[in-house]
């Protein structure tokens, strides 16, 4: 269990920041030891990376690929107490390449499963991957 659980929005933003810095240890610190990470084909050599060693391998693969893009957070949306979506944009040299998203599940306040998509929120809702936002 995390020493002090971060609010979902802070956890999501720190994960994206760790990605942008290509900081494997920052990602590991936010992730459960049993994490299952499914990156997009844009940023991964494998379909799935398992555990903390898998996250470290993913960052090594990412660095080896020479990919220089970054991700900007648009919004973070809680789906359930143990699940959230971070809606993002992929940028290269400050120019928008694609909308993107990551849907994650939590265990003990840490990310235990995360799947990334190169898609926008509306499409993810239409195909049933993401529930529509609740109306207040």
Give a short summary of the structure.
30% of the residues lie in helices and 38% in strands. With 136 residues, the protein is an alpha+beta fold.
Give the total of beta strands.
6
CATH domain topology: Nuclear Transport Factor 2, Chain: A
CATH class: Alpha Beta
Q: How large a portion of the residues is in β-strands, by DSSP E?
A: 35-45%
* Spans of at least 5 consecutive residues with low confidence: none
Give the fraction of residues assigned to helices: 25-40%
Major beta-sheet overview: 6 strands, mixed
Tell me the domain tally: 1
Q: What gap, in angstroms, lies between the N and C termini?
A: 32 Å
Mean pLDDT: 92
CATH architecture: Roll
